[in-house]
Amino acid sequence: MGRHNLPEADTSNSAGSTNSYILLVDSDVQSLTFLSMILQRMEYRVSSAPGVGHALALANASTPSLIISELNLKGMSGLELLQHIRLTPRTSTVPFIVMSRELSPELEQQCKEAGAAACLEKPVQANELYLVIHPIIRPDSRRKNMRIHTSLSVIVNKRPLDCVEGECATNLSANGMFLLTRNSYPVNSQVVIEANLYDQIIMAEARIVYCRAPEEGPTGMWGIGLHFLKTSPQAKEIIRRFINDEVSHGIAPGME
């Protein structure tokens, strides 16, 4: 399976995030590296700062779309950094997210009263990170779940896609998938999907949202966008775990 990942966007293939610049601040180098790699795999532009001075210099040099900061920084807290950001005209309206390993309802309330858009508890999972930051950066987006590029064998209405001929699911999210197939299906018709993830068969009833004719793409095959209408909670959890593992694949354990 392919391990090239991107967040969902308003169109079927565009990441929609490549112009979004995130400033990541954390005194823990491992955490900084892990989260920076995850965000880059989501196709965000990222600058990393291990300290407050570096962070302020980067923010002044190029205004970020979002700042994500650890609460406990060396020499200054994340909330103090937030105050500096708010008092600087250039960055006064930049959304700010606070991270902490000791997040409590009281601390979260304190952060939000200080002007934080959201709070994240460490260790942060890739899918959780996306669910928090995407609506902040792209409030106009219709999609709410992370999507990955993949190459997944799928059965449609009891008919296995022909992997030898290039038929497969090329994108997957918790709410749907995109199929390359030589068969066309009417828009708004319903199909039953089966796929094998972690040696478990997941099933979903899905609606055909759109079709792409062969001449509209490079493969010479129909492209079909599916929206899941009915899946079990267990199947959804397996899909989310698969997506999270694909995005995090190859990053050293302990970097969180």
What does this structure look like?
The structure is a single chain. Helices cover 27% and strands 32% of the residues. The chain is an alpha/beta fold. It folds into two domains: 17-137, Response regulator (Rossmann fold, 3-Layer(aba) Sandwich), CATH 3.40.50.2300; 146-248, Thrombin, subunit H. The strands form two sheets. A nine-stranded antiparallel β-sheet has the order 1-7-10-11-14-13-12-8-9. Strands 3-2-4-5-6 form a five-stranded parallel β-sheet, with helices on both faces. The protein is elongated, with a radius of gyration of 20 Å.
Please describe the structure with a list of short key phrases separated by commas or semicolons.
alpha/beta, Thrombin, subunit H, five-stranded parallel β-sheet, 27% helix, 6 helices, 256 residues, Rossmann fold, 2 domains, 32% strand
Chain-wise SSE layout:
Blueprint: E1 5-7, E2 21-25, H1 29-41, E3 45-49, H2 52-61, E4 66-70, H3 78-87, E5 96-100, H4 105-113, E6 118-121, H5 126-137, E7 146-152, E8 154-156, E9 159-160, E10 168-173, E11 176-181, E12 190-197, E13 200-212, E14 222-231, H6 233-248
